């Protein structure tokens, strides 16, 4: 059965600290996709990144970086030099199967990690 | 840019009322989804639709129904609202199948409707 676990419910840091948000997933599929979304206080989920199961390269985008490790079924997200604007709830999500798979693009979300960055 | 709009940001209804939540997307996406979001529970899928007039139950369909008469519009219906349906409701859409490059398309979300049932 598919599952996404975000063990950290809430994290509070001071501005300029680095912070890592953990995500552990479970799936039996060999083809799957992982996502991170940000939900600021305004409420709308904003897509941050997508990774497929065949691409284990880490990715960096500005202050954001993602570490995908199939061996530990983890897809962790690091914010370097955090800023107050990073305060949000962050969701990790999983989608199984490629084209022809049964998921039809459905996402399984973790419960989210609320990040508070204080000035 | 993909735009997903929801008919209301805030809605207050009474127990027993019939409630319609509307969602419209402007990017010709095949897939549309309705989620509810509750503290500590994350996002849970209520229903999704992969084509006009097609619908599939998600994880928590009880007490809800949906309608998709046009490709761009996906409605969530609470036949008889109850207090335990007080929640944030999020609509999303995505392209299906994935694009020609094989890249899996992400879901685009609307701003959400915060529904309170009294």
Task: Give an account of the 3D structure.
The complex is a heterodimer of chains A (about 120) and B (about 120). Chain A is mostly beta strands and about 120 residues long. Helix content of chain A is about 0%, strand content about 50%. In chain A, strands 2, 5, 6, 10, 11 and 12 form a six-stranded mixed β-sheet that branches. Chain A has a four-stranded antiparallel β-sheet with strand order 3-9-8-7, with no helix packed on it. The model of chain A has no long low-confidence stretch (mean pLDDT about 90). Chain B has strands at about 5, 10-15, 20-25, 30-40, 40-50, 55, 65-70, 75-80, 85-95, 110, 115. In chain B, the strands form two sheets. In chain B, strands 2, 4, 5, 6, 9, 10 and 11 form a seven-stranded mixed β-sheet that branches. In chain B, strands 1-3-8-7 form a four-stranded antiparallel β-sheet, with no helix packed on it. The model of chain B has no long low-confidence stretch (mean pLDDT about 90). The interface of A and B includes residues 33, 43 and 47 of A.
Which short descriptors sum up this protein?
A: 119 residues; mainly beta; 12 strands; 51% strand; B: mainly beta; seven-stranded mixed sheet; four-stranded antiparallel sheet; 50% strand; globular
User: Percent of residues of chain B in helical segments?
Assistant: under 10%
* SS-based class of chain A: mainly beta
Biggest β-sheet description of chain A:
6 strands, mixed
Tell me which oligomeric state these chains represent: heterodimer
SSE pattern of chain B: EEEEEEEEEEE
Biggest interface in this structure? Answer: A-B, 24 and 31 residues
Summed up, the helix count of chain A is 0
